[in-house]
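Section 3.1 - Work completed
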Amino acid sequence: MKVNHELYTMCMIEKDDKVLLINRPTKRGFPGYIAPGGKVDYPESIVDGAIREVREETGLIVTDIIYKGLAEYCEPETGLRSMVFNYLATSFEGELLEHPPEGELLWIEKDKALELPMQDWFRSRFPLFFQLGTFEISLVWDKEHQAAINSIEKYYVERVMST
């Protein structure tokens, strides 16, 4: 079976205890509130893809971007392996687009964001952007039965080594 790899990014933008989310309409897929992101173009780097996607979807140019983790989704029946590289941006330049292409933009307090309608997978990933260290999520999905075959979540916290 041929394996098809798809590379995506997601970038949570945080400023003054607020985050910037996009209210994606159903016609764009994954309806509800979500962080900016999208497909990485070949041969751009993963981080350049994240920066480009934020600019295209919001008008902002992120300047401090921190890698937070990997979320991957595999479908053995189709050979699909989709990998999402997740980032946190804490500073940026520019102004928000007046007519964003992916949906309405909303600055919202972090502690109120989970009250918004959003996909379950994004709701569970949301707090991971703000925890110390990085995360790794792997889901193997049985498309025919619409059920997880295997799911793994790991968290890594940096350790300071003393000399």
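Second construct:
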Amino acid sequence: MGTTDTVLLWALGVLALVGGVLVFTLNSMARVTCALLGSLVCVGGVVTVLRLPYLGVVIVLMMVMEMLIMAVFMIAYMMNPAGLMPMSMLHNKRGSLVISAVVFAALVAGVFLVPWPDRTGVRPGDTTFQVGMSLMGDQMLTMVTLGFVLLATMVGATVLATRRGRYDRFGDDLDQRPAKDPTGGGVGR
């Protein structure tokens, strides 16, 4: 690992840690969501710097979508406006502080006290392929095919669920000007 990778790894690690701390110190769900998103994106960056780009990108994509959905549901369904009202993310503050300090100390001690194994063999050329094979084994083709079938099913269900097409408001010959919206809210109004 080069100097740039090391600096990037430390910077992303510190930013991920700061974002994690902000999750428990900010006082609104919307701000906590943004802090958690930033922390998890930094974790995806750390995984990418560690030369597992596929997993890093998957972590970033999953976390962005998850936090986006969380923010939308907070805005739509929370009693306070958009999760911006002050609140505390901590319950049993003393107990949780003691437990988290003990767990953190145990993890740090584990990092330094565990005898880490030395690398045997050579590093694989394509880590993405290796991760895919270890996750799915001989069923890789099945899973890729299943992914395309699921995508086609979602697109087909969406198309079949809509009553009108993209150009229906322009008429059969696409000559209706101004466009007439079948729902009643025409453009010319």
